[in-house]
């Protein structure tokens, strides 16, 4: 194999490894998978309302990745919760929650896409009362609904979720499947690898000719 062929083959192999890890090729959740996840949630003590909500989400699976849209209003005076120091702020409680959630996301090829602080009240509000004020907004990418179910059925998740609940005054979180998603890491990585490999090819081999 020539050095030039190896130069192009190596990033192609790296990209193939990343793509196979980052993408769920198993298709929509099967009935048996959904039943198994729900049984685990029951053993973990999930509330009936949450079970019904998650069951519908799982059974309507398309097999695709999705983004969770989060609007967050932090509690200025959060209550005392087990496992936290008295007087901890909402940000400190949320950090305790993310100590589990972030590693769990990354281990399943999922991650925050965008996070930011609100700089003004809602500028367009129709049909909703009490939703004018928000503190933060975030988008979180999940590899698939299968990945989501693996994370939320982990018993550790239930043991940390109360930190998030105590930290929030109110929140809205709902999933979307993208039609246009220019921040997809598969696209960005492909462009970066292509650009650097083409540059290296030019520097190493074009001069020789």
Note down, in words, how this protein is organized.
The chain is α+β, with helices and mostly antiparallel strands. The chain has one domain: Alpha-Beta Plaits, CATH 3.30.70. It has helices at residues 3-22, 31-43, 48-59, 90-107, 145-152, 155-167, 185-206, and strands at 66-74, 111-117, 136-142, 168-176. A four-stranded antiparallel β-sheet has the order 2-3-1-4. Helix 2 packs antiparallel against helix 3 (48-59). It is globular, with a radius of gyration of 22 Å. It starts with a helix and ends with a helix.
Protein structure class:
alpha+beta
The average pLDDT score comes to: 93
Distance between the termini: 19 Å
The CATH architecture would be 2-Layer Sandwich
Spans where pLDDT lies below 50 across 5 or more residues: none
CATH class: Alpha Beta
Number of strands: 4
Q: How helix-rich are the residues, as a percent range?
A: 40-55%
